[in-house]
Amino acid sequence: MIKKFSTKKIGSALLVSGALAASCFAPLAQADWKGWNVHPAGYPVTVAMESFIKEAEKATDGRVSGRVYNGAILGSQEDAIQMMQVGGIDFAEFNLGPIGASVPEVNVVSLPFIFKDVEHMHRVMDGPVGDELSKAMEKKGIISLAWYDSGSRSFYDSRKPIKTPEDMKGMKFRVMNNELYVGMVEALGGNATPMAYSEVYQSLKTGVVDGAENNWPSYDSSNHFEVAKYYSLTQHLILPETLSVSAKAWAKLSPEDQKAVRKAAQDSAEFQRKLWAEKVTESREKLIKAGIQITEIEDKSAFQDAMAPVYAKAVKDNPTLAPLIEKIRNTK
Ligand code: GTR
């Protein structure tokens, strides 16, 4: 008797052999990267990250591909920094502020008023200090591929304009996760509490905190302006951000693919800086129309002078900051 093969069995045999054949011919280092991002769709960081991963895919003939998960749905920035160090996420855009909590050298950029302006920050980060900070991050499993912009941060609150540090007395501010920022607010006379970005809106609304601090685009996109309308232009921090890849994901790429991915990251940074400049203007105009109250602070010396103990403590806790501060000050 001739044994009949069921078409179902033949079908699945074909499927299995097909899959085997496909896996034999698939490129070896196929990587599907998970990307962490704190910002919403349309934000300059988000648009640039999406452009990065698309360009990286093209430039590696699909050996690298990935997806950006917005709005910190993969976890807070603090958690994401830890996740990247163990390879739990493959790429991300981080603010160097919270990275300082894991990579102490990076704290140099969190010293208030360390940069004269955004152009000075660019010169520093595109030079030897930027390279030194990248190396320190690499030792902790974070491969920084390019620096993104995040303008300058100023305080905002729900109670009153801030013209001098005295105005901060008795007010409680949310800060990013880094003890240095707690010291910064305390040195100005206020109280500070570190908190995840996603919790700030509700905390401002319910009065758990009176204020926070951020740049124009984040003050806008987070809707914090709705619940804290006094924006006082202290411009105390100019924080670079980084487009990074986890050392684990990076090590799986060939040198050629690493080069291509780095190039895609640097191109995306150029794009991000352009989008950033446009967004700052757009957010400022939008929020002025929405009725926020801006306080210009021509003379910031009272805020700057109050930072002496913050610098002293940072250097005492981590002496490697002293030469870095020198180098930044000497960068013309
Ligand atoms: C934004 C920054 C985010 C995050 C946020 C915050 O300006 O781009 O990475 O650090 O501020 O205040 O937590």
List keywords for this structure.
332 residues; alpha/beta; D-Maltodextrin-Binding Protein, domain 2; 2 domains; 5-stranded mixed sheet; 4-stranded mixed sheet; 11 strands; 18% strand; disordered N terminus; binds beta-D-galactopyranuronic acid; carbohydrate binding; TRAP_DctP_sf; Tripartite ATP-independent transporter DctP family solute receptor
Explain the overall architecture.
There is one protein chain. Strands 2-1-3-10-4 form a 5-stranded mixed β-sheet, with helices on both faces. A 4-stranded mixed β-sheet has the order 8-5-9-11. Strands 6-7 form a two-stranded parallel sheet. With 332 residues, it is of the alpha/beta class. It has 14 helices and 11 strands. Helix 2 links the parallel strand 1 and strand 2. It has 2 domains: 165 residues, D-Maltodextrin-Binding Protein, domain 2; 124 residues, Bacterial extracellular solute-binding protein, family 7 (D-Maltodextrin-Binding Protein, domain 2). Helices cover 47% and strands 18% of the residues. Helix 2 runs antiparallel to helix 11. Bound molecules: beta-D-galactopyranuronic acid. The site of beta-D-galactopyranuronic acid (GTR) has 11 residues, from loops. Beta-D-galactopyranuronic acid binds next to loops. One of its GO terms (cellular component) is outer membrane-bounded periplasmic space. One of its GO terms (biological process) is transmembrane transport. This is Tripartite ATP-independent transporter DctP family solute receptor. It comes from Marinomonas alcarazii. One of its GO terms (molecular function) is carbohydrate binding.
